[in-house]
Amino acid sequence: MKIVGFESKDGLHIGVVEGDAVVDVQVVDVNVPADLGLVLARNGGDLKPLADLAKRAPDSARRPLKGLKYALPVASSGKIVCLGLNYLEHAKEGPQRDNIPKVPTIFMRCRTSLAAHESPIIRPRVSETLDYEAELALIIGKRVKHLTVANAYSCIAGYACFNEGSIREFQRRTSQWDMGKNFDRTGGFGPWMVTVDELPAGAKGLKIESRLNGKVMQSDNTANMMFPVAETLADITQGITLEPGDLVVMGTPAGVGHARKPPVWMKAGDTIEIEIEGIGILRNPIEDEK
């Protein structure tokens, strides 16, 4: 099942994608929250009630995907936990090439750094060093702590595409990456969430790719993560409680812009696409900050 957030004339809605149409869940039941995180929290991570609503939806609840104004798949994630240096060849192409991590490298993003599918990613006035990063995002379905590798998958509601856009100049200013990772609307998230039953366990073995203006920049497979999904969730939840609607973003393959000679930065007029097998294509135009 694909669950999508979108903007309607009366505010945010969520829907279930069926072919080239979407079932507007709020038309079926006005009491369903318009934030997927709240839906997950209300139902303990169980999305069957949402599927049941879609099955009994009247024709009036269906609208075409074409022309939809997409919103973030989760409207207000409490935490966005990100991994750096999770593909070996990417670790080798950066400043950590002689210090390959032995444990997950964790940092955080905030919601204001994100842009929905087909909305512009913004290159800020202060720097031209806007880079792309194709990544897999996990959407957490229920509150968990102290997960083990054996039970880690139980907390995942679904998966989405993520463009972990970075302002490299600011990322490199200090040993802490967060400033360069959190400029407003520099990261893409979408186009929707695909539920776990649609994909292999841990989303392992999926092709992941980025394309800038149609040219392939990164191409790899999620099987090549140094710290796979289960191990990463077990590590994070030693100390951090994950809650419904939180995101865990799983790192990027080699081929990023800063490692190219000369560097390739995203600029106004460009289009960046992130595609993950079985999930879909996240597409964002690039605009300059006004």
Number of helices: 7
Tell me what portion of residues adopts beta-strand conformation: 25-35%
Q: How many strands?
A: 18
CATH superfamily of the largest domain, please?
A: Fumarylacetoacetase-like, C-terminal domain
Helix content: 10-25%
Question: Class by helix and strand content?
Answer: alpha+beta
Total tally of structural domains: 2
Low-confidence stretches: none
Euclidean distance between termini CA atoms: 38 Å
How would you sum up the major sheet?
11 strands, mixed
Class of the largest domain, according to the CATH hierarchy?
Alpha Beta
Output the helix-strand order: EEEHHHEEHEEEEEEEHHEEEHEEE
Coarse morphology: globular
| Average of the residue pLDDT scores | 96
| CATH level-3 fold name of the largest domain | Fumarylacetoacetate hydrolase, domain 2
The CATH architecture term of the largest domain is Alpha-Beta Complex
Radius of gyration: 18 Å
How would you sum up this structure, described in words?
The structure is a single chain. With 290 residues, this protein is an alpha+beta fold. It has two domains: 2-64, no CATH class; 80-288, Fumarylacetoacetate hydrolase, domain 2. 14% of the residues lie in helices and 33% in strands. It is built from seven helices and 18 strands. It has helices at residues 25-28, 36-42, 48-55, 88-92, 168-171, 178-181, 229-236, and strands at residues 2-8, 11-18, 21-24, 62-64, 80-84, 105-109, 114-116, 121-123, 130-131, 134-140, 156-163, 166-167, 187-195, 207-212, 215-221, 247-249, 271-276, 280-288. The strands form three sheets. Strands 1, 2, 3, 4, 5, 6, 7, 10, 11, 13 and 16 form an eleven-stranded mixed sheet that branches. Strand 2 (11-18) and strand 3 (21-24) form a beta hairpin. The termini are far apart. The mean pLDDT is 96.
